[in-house]
Amino acid sequence: MKGKYGLKALLHLAALAPGGWAMSSEIAADREISKKFLDNILGELRSAGFVTTKKGRGGGYRLQRPPAEVRVGHVLRVLEGPLAPIRCASRTAHLPCSDCPDEAACSVRLLMLDVRNAITGVLDETSLADMLEREATPAPAPRVVISGA
């Protein structure tokens, strides 16, 4: 949930007028996020250099960089950790499985590498600006096909 709420908060900030600031209470209300949880997330995003803060009247939070420069994959790694579905398929937090005699030939790991590559390909190519554009003109929901049903 941290990743989801972090992206929602960043989208709120990305939609502000240039130079605009937003209070965490405003973001929490607008994006339906617990303020206490959001404050923790915004602290992590500030530490990672995604947002900057200003105290006092007219202050709050804003993006540190333009929305087109903020990649979703980077945000999710900061808030959630590695994107790979299992540790032996992770680039950043690789950990071999204790029950696998040959990692290079493990069909489960090889499949999970494909999954990781697909996930990171989408997330690392998508910016906050791309997400804002999607939010403004939502596409129809994808049709889910369940084979064998």
Rg, Cα atoms, Å: 18 Å
Share in helix: 40-55%
User: What average pLDDT do the residues reach?
Assistant: 90
Order of helices and strands: HHHEEHHH
Low-confidence stretches: none
CATH superfamily of the largest domain: Winged helix-like DNA-binding domain superfamily/Winged helix DNA-binding domain
Physical arrangement of strands within the biggest beta sheet:
1-2
Task: Describe the oligomeric state of these chains in a short phrase.
Answer: single chain
The count of DSSP E runs of length 2 or more, i.e. the number of strands, is 2
β content, as a range?
5-15%
> Which second-level CATH architecture of the largest domain applies?
Orthogonal Bundle
**Tally of contiguous helical segments:** 6
Molecular structure report:
- A hairpin with a 5-residue loop joins strand 1 (51-54) and strand 2 (60-63).
- The model has no long low-confidence stretch (mean pLDDT 90).
- The chain has helices at 2-14, 24-31, 35-47, 72-80, 107-125, 128-136, and strands at 51-54, 60-63.
- It has a two-stranded antiparallel sheet.
- The protein has 149 residues and is mostly helical.
- It has two domains: 2-63, Winged helix-like DNA-binding domain superfamily/Winged helix DNA-binding domain (Arc Repressor Mutant, subunit A, Orthogonal Bundle), CATH 1.10.10.10; 71-127, no CATH class.
- The two termini are 31 Å apart.
